Task: structure prediction
Amino acid sequence: MGAAIEISAVIVAAGRGQRLGSSLPKAYISLGGKPILEYSLELFARCAQVSEIIVVIHPDDERLFQKLSLALEKPWQRVYGGAHRQDSVLTGVRAAHGDYVLVHDGARPCVSLSLVERVIETMKEHGTAVPVVPIAESVKRVKEDQIVSDEDRSMLFCAQTPQGFTRKLLTEALERAYAQGRYFTDEASVVLAMSGVQPRAIPGEAQNIKITTEADLKLAECWLTARRAS
Result:
């Protein structure tokens, strides 16, 4: 009987969230009666296929992090992030032990267990998995306040998290980008640019929004309220 495949979940929560206009860092703002970060930590703790959780926080947030009500029934650790999101992801991935790594934004509290499980299934089969959602609006290219062209939105999607990769692939891509001083918006971009591997896309979820503005907070509360009522 072969050894069990281990999966590490890296929850990135080192951002400042300045666009929310709060004195608190984004991960610790209250949503439905508890900090935003707790939702992601609790969900990945419930996922039976996840072997360990690494949460990446800002060094200045240690006191806030210690106040969280955490009762995670699986191995977990806290590490400190860097100046950029990609630095924080690299720190978390370096601390991971699993054969595979899921990277999730701590500011996406509405992610569902079913989406995480679908990412894991695809990741195991193809070595990569990135949830995406189609762009609904018309897309324009604008230059100097003038619309210069239309874009074919049928091939344009918004990427979400968690994004899943073999740990070897993601580590090598992140380390290569770090050595070259190159920064990307997400793990899929790093892997594509640094390794040439084209990550596998799967359908994401409309409710898996990233909290960026006050309006996002209100929308997330609506999604969570509807989930509790169902």
Q: What stands out?
A: The mean pLDDT is 93. The CA atoms of residues 107 and 211 lie 5 Å apart. Residues 214-229 form the longest helix (16 residues). Residues 7-131+158-229 form a domain with the Spore Coat Polysaccharide Biosynthesis Protein SpsA; Chain A fold (CATH 3.90.550.10).
